[in-house]
């Protein structure tokens, strides 16, 4: 959990830098390709890294909505009851993003903070007789865009999501594993 305070400090300190770039404005649309690495709260699941894509729309100069989806990641797991195997986890995040420097013409660094909901789809459980329920939970994100050109930015972020993996067998709960991934990532953003 030491990554989140560092990400917040870096975002706030870098937001003081300025350069020549177009302001973030209402009506802007963007797409982002990113690489993510998650640290899970439980040691019962293997840690995996992967790619994700996100798209967003600025409702006002300072407020936008973003939808992101990660690639399906295969995790190995080991439960207390002795069950072991692998499964696939695919996260989807819908976030309301706040850009405190949105609308400022010369802001080369654009920090952002987002809150919303996470949907995690579990599939492909390799252990016979076991299934895992899909899960909804809170999602929070901090990050920044470093403007390279009028349309291109380098992006970094840290995101926390509440995710539980509820294992079932024959309709009965076998074990509930709290994953709560803290995800850090970086990517390239293109604004239209």
What does this protein structure show overall?
There is one protein chain. The protein has 192 residues and is mainly beta. Helix content is 6%, strand content 59%. It has one helix and twelve strands, in the order αββββββββββββ. The chain has one helix at 3-14; strands at 29-39, 49-58, 63-70, 73-78, 84-98, 109-123, 131-133, 135-147, 152-161, 164-169, 172-178, 182-191. An eight-stranded antiparallel barrel has the order 1-2-3-5-6-8-9-12. A three-stranded antiparallel beta sheet has the order 7-10-11, with no helix packed on it. A hairpin with a 4-residue loop joins strand 8 and strand 9. The longest helix is centred in the N-terminal third of the chain and has 12 residues, at 3-14. It is elongated and about 60 Å long. Residues 10-21 have low confidence and may be disordered.
Please render the helix and strand layout as text.
Elements: H1 3-14, E1 29-39, E2 49-58, E3 63-70, E4 73-78, E5 84-98, E6 109-123, E7 131-133, E8 135-147, E9 152-161, E10 164-169, E11 172-178, E12 182-191
Antiparallel strand pairs: 1-2, 1-12, 2-3, 3-5, 4-5, 5-6, 6-8, 7-10, 8-9, 9-12, 10-11
């Amino acid at each position: 959990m030491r990554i989140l305070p560092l990400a917040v400090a870096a975002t706030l300190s870098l937001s003081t830098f300025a350069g020549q770039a177009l302001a973030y404005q209402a009506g802007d649309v963007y797409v982002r390709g990113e690489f993510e690495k998650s640290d899970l709260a439980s040691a019962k699941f293997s840690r995996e890294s992967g790619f994700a894509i996100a798209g967003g729309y600025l409702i006002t100069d300072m407020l936008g909505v973003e939808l992101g989806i990660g690639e399906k990641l295969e995790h190995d797991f080991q439960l207390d009851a002795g069950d072991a195997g692998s499964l696939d986890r695919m996260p989807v995040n819908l976030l309301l993003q706040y850009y405190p420097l949105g609308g400022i013409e010369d802001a080369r660094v654009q920090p952002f903070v987002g809150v919303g909901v996470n949907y995690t789809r579990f599939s492909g459980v390799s252990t016979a007789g076991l299934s895992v329920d899909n899960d909804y939970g809170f999602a929070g994100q901090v990050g920044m865009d470093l403007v390279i050109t009028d349309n291109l930015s380098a992006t970094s972020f840290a995101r926390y999501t509440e995710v539980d993996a509820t294992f079932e067998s024959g309709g009965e709960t076998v074990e509930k594993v709290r994953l709560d991934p803290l995800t850090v990532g970086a990517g390239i953003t293109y604004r239209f």
